[in-house]
Specification:
The structure is a single chain. With 600 residues, this protein is mainly beta. Among the domains are: 94 residues, Sandwich (Immunoglobulin-like), CATH 2.60.40; 108 residues, Beta Complex (Ferric Hydroxamate Uptake Protein, Chain A, domain 1). The chain contains four helices and 40 strands. Strands 19, 22, 23, 24, 25, 26, 27, 30, 31, 32, 35, 36, 37 and 40 form a 14-stranded antiparallel sheet that branches. It has a five-stranded mixed sheet with strand order 1-34-33-28-29, with no helix packed on it. A five-stranded mixed sheet has the order 5-4-7-8-11, with no helix packed on it. β30 and β31 form a beta hairpin. The radius of gyration is 28 Å and the shape is elongated.
Length: 600
C-alpha cells in the first residue's frame, strides 16, 4: 500500500531578491538605447576648378517630406541635412553666376549618410543640369548593419517575424530553427560575434521597449512586417547613442504620403505542402513523432494617404496570423494527435502632422494579441492541464522633430508599452480542480501546476540634438542627448486549491502545498547620456568620437502577503519592507571609430 505525505512550498520576496541581484551581470542589456530611424545627406559644393562654393543654397525634397528642407553651404562649401525620413530624395543647388544643379534618386535608409558632392558650372540660374545619382555608399558611418526594406520583407521566403529575419543576417546565431513555420512567432535567443543572450534590443521607432524582466533581451510586443518601412539589424561598431554591441533590431514604421497607397497580402500553407516524415522505429515499427504544421495562414492589409496634403498623413495596417500544429507522439482519448493552435493579430496606426515649416509631430499606436490556446512545457500535458495564453499588448508613442536652425535639429521620442502575459486556466477547469503530476509517466492532468500573470509596463523618453559645423579643421556633426526609463515588472502566481498531487505510476506519493496567491513586484530606472562627433577631415577621412554614460537602479517596494491565502495557517501573512536599491550601477564608455573614403 502506498503512503502519502504533505510537503509545503513557500515563495518569499527574499528568493526573488537573490535572483534579481544576479541581474547585475545582465545590466548592459537592460539599459536604454537609441539608434537613428532617419538618414542624412551631406557633401561639398565646388565649381569646375574644384574650388569650394560658399553660401550656395541647397534644397532637398522627397515624397517622404511634407515640407522641403533648405540650407546654405559653409565657408568650406560643406552642407548637411540630418533627420531626413527614409525614402528617395532630390537635391538642388543654386548659386549666383552658376547653373542650377539637381541630383535625383538619392536613397536613404535608417542611419545611412549619403555623400553627394555637386559640381557647379558657370551659367545662368534658369539653366538646370539634372543628374541621376548612382548608388552611393556611406563613407562616414562605422556601424555594421543589415537592412531589410519593405521589398525584401515581402519577397524573401522566410518566416515573417523578427527572429526569422535576424537569422538571415551574416554572423547571427539563434537557439532554435524555424522549419516551415513550426517555430513562428516563438521568441529565440539571438547572438552575434560573441554577444551575450541578453544583448538583443527590440527598438520600435528608435525606442528600446524590451520586456523589463529576465535578462532584458526579450520583447513583450509582436509586430506586423508589412507595417515596417525598414527592419534594420545593427550588430557592431555601434555609436554612443546605443548601449549594446549585440543584436539591435531597429523597426521603423511606415507612414502616409501625399498619394494614396496600400497593399493586401495572404500567405497559406498546409501539411499537403510539406515533405513526408520519416519516423523513428522501435522493434521494427514506426513510432509517430514530430510536430507538423497542419495549417498556416497569414493575411495582412494596409492603407496610407493624406488627410490634408503636405500637412497631415495617416497610415494604418492590420494582420491576422493563424498557426495550427499537432504533436504526433501524444493523442487524445479518441486517438487524435493533440493540437497546438496559435493566433496573432496586429493593428497599427500612425498620424504625421506638420505643425509648421520647422516642426513635425508623429503619433503611433500598436495593439496586438499573441494567443496560444494550449501552451505546454511538455507534449505529455493533457489539454485541461495546459495553459491558455491570451496575451494583449499595446504601444503608445510620440515623435517630435524640430529644425531650430539650418544646422541645429532636435529629436524627442516618448513611448509607453503595456502587456499582460498570462498563463491561465482552460475554460473547463473549475476552481475545485487541482494538478495531478505523475513523475514516472511525466504526465499532468486535472489542472496546470500553477497559473501566472505578468502585467508589465515601461515608459521611455529620449531627447537628442544634432548640430553641424563646417570650416573647423574639417566638418563636425555633433550629436548629444539623454534617455530615461521607468520599468515595472510584477509576477502574480496562483495554484488551484493551493496544491499539486504527486504520483508514481498512478500511486499517490505526496501533496505539495503553496503559499498562494503570491505577488512579487520589481521596479528599475535606467538613465543614459551620450555625446558623439562625426569629424570629417579633408573629405576622405572621418573620425567617429563618442562617450556614453549609463546608470541603472533596481528595487522592490514594500509588500504584504495576499489576504486570500489558501493556507494562512501554514503560511502566516507577512509584511516585507521595501528593499532600497538592490543594484546601483554606473558605467562610462568611450567609443572610437574611423572611416576612410576610398579613392575612386
Amino acid at each position: 500500500m502506498s503512503t502519502s505525505r504533505l510537503a509545503c512550498l513557500a515563495w518569499h520576496p527574499s528568493d526573488w531578491i537573490r535572483a534579481a541581484v544576479l541581474a547585475v551581470f545582465c545590466l548592459p542589456a537592460l539599459l536604454s538605447a537609441q539608434v537613428s530611424t532617419t538618414g542624412k545627406i551631406t557633401g561639398v559644393v565646388t565649381d569646375a576648378s574644384g574650388a569650394v562654393v560658399p553660401n550656395a543654397t541647397v534644397e532637398v525634397n522627397s515624397p517622404a517630406l511634407m515640407v522641403p528642407r533648405t540650407s546654405r553651404t559653409h565657408a568650406d562649401g560643406s552642407f548637411l541635412f540630418d533627420l531626413l525620413p527614409l525614402g528617395a530624395y532630390e537635391l538642388g543647388v543654386t548659386a549666383s553666376g552658376f547653373q542650377t544643379v539637381k541630383r535625383t534618386n538619392i536613397v536613404l535608409s535608417a542611419g545611412f549618410t549619403a555623400t553627394v558632392n555637386p559640381q557647379l558650372t558657370v551659367g545662368e540660374l534658369k539653366q538646370t543640369i539634372e543628374v541621376q545619382s548612382e548608388p552611393v555608399i556611406d563613407v562616414q558611418t562605422v556601424q555594421t548593419q543589415t537592412t531589410f526594406d519593405q521589398r525584401l520583407l515581402q519577397e524573401i521566403p522566410s518566416g515573417r517575424d523578427p527572429w526569422s529575419t535576424v537569422a538571415q543576417m551574416p554572423g547571427a546565431t539563434l537557439d532554435r530553427f524555424d522549419v516551415g513555420g513550426n517555430q513562428s512567432m516563438q521568441q529565440s535567443t539571438m547572438q552575434v560575434h560573441g554577444s551575450t543572450p541578453g544583448e538583443q534590443v527590440f527598438s520600435f521607432n528608435g525606442l528600446d521597449l524590451n520586456w523589463p524582466g529576465a535578462n532584458g533581451g526579450y520583447t513583450q510586443f509582436y509586430t506586423n512586417h508589412d507595417s515596417f518601412q525598414e527592419f534594420q539589424v545593427v550588430s557592431d561598431s555601434t555609436p554612443s547613442s546605443v548601449s549594446i554591441s549585440g543584436i539591435y533590431m531597429n523597426m521603423v514604421t511606415r507612414s502616409g504620403s501625399n498619394t494614396l497607397h496600400g497593399n493586401l497580402g495572404a500567405y497559406y500553407g498546409t501539411m499537403a505542402l510539406e515533405a513526408g516524415t520519416k519516423f523513428p522505429t522501435f522493434k521494427g515499427a514506426d513510432v509517430p513523432a514530430g510536430s507538423p504544421t497542419v495549417m498556416l495562414r497569414d493575411t495582412t492589409a494596409s492603407l496610407g494617404g493624406p488627410i490634408i496634403k503636405d500637412r497631415w498623413w495617416l497610415f494604418g495596417s492590420y494582420r491576422r496570423y493563424d498557426l495550427r500544429s499537432i504533436f504526433l507522439a501524444v493523442t487524445d482519448k479518441n486517438g487524435n494527435p493533440i493540437a497546438d493552435p496559435n493566433h496573432q493579430t496586429n493593428t497599427d496606426l500612425r498620424s504625421d502632422w506638420q505643425l509648421n515649416s520647422k516642426n513635425k509631430l508623429s503619433l503611433i499606436w500598436l495593439y496586438n494579441e499573441q494567443n496560444r490556446f494550449f501552451r505546454r512545457d511538455s507534449a505529455l500535458v493533457s489539454p485541461e492541464a495546459s495553459w491558455r495564453q491570451i496575451e494583449p499588448a499595446y504601444i503608445l508613442q510620440a515623435l517630435w522633430t524640430s529644425q531650430v536652425t539650418n544646422n541645429l535639429l532636435l529629436d524627442v521620442r516618448a513611448g509607453y508599452n503595456k502587456e499582460v502575459f498570462p498563463l491561465g486556466p482552460q475554460p473547463e477547469v473549475k476552481a475545485t480542480d487541482f494538478n495531478h503530476t505523475d513523475r514516472v509517466t511525466e504526465t499532468q492532468t486535472g489542472a496546470a501546476q500553477s497559473y501566472f500573470s505578468n502585467p508589465a509596463w515601461l515608459f521611455k523618453i529620449a531627447a537628442g540634438a544634432s548640430w553641424y559645423k563646417g570650416s573647423l579643421a574639417g566638418t563636425h556633426n555633433l550629436k548629444f542627448g539623454f534617455e530615461w526609463g521607468d520599468n515595472y515588472n510584477p509576477y502574480i502566481q496562483t495554484v488551484n486549491q493551493g496544491i499539486n498531487a504527486i504520483y508514481d505510476h498512478g500511486n499517490p506519493v505526496e501533496v505539495i502545498a503553496f503559499n498562494t496567491p503570491f505577488t512579487a513586484k520589481s521596479y528599475f530606472h535606467d538613465t543614459s547620456a551620450y555625446l558623439q562627433d562625426a569629424w570629417t577631415v579633408r573629405r576622405r577621412f572621418t573620425l567617429n568620437l563618442g562617450l556614453r554614460f549609463d546608470r541603472f537602479i533596481s528595487f522592490y517596494p514594500r509588500e504584504t502577503s495576499d489576504p486570500n491565502l489558501t493556507f494562512p495557517d501554514l503560511f502566516p501573512p507577512k509584511t516585507y519592507p521595501a528593499s532600497g536599491n538592490l543594484v546601483t550601477w554606473n558605467n562610462l564608455a568611450p567609443r572610437l571609430g574611423r572611416q576612410l573614403r576610398p579613392l575612386l
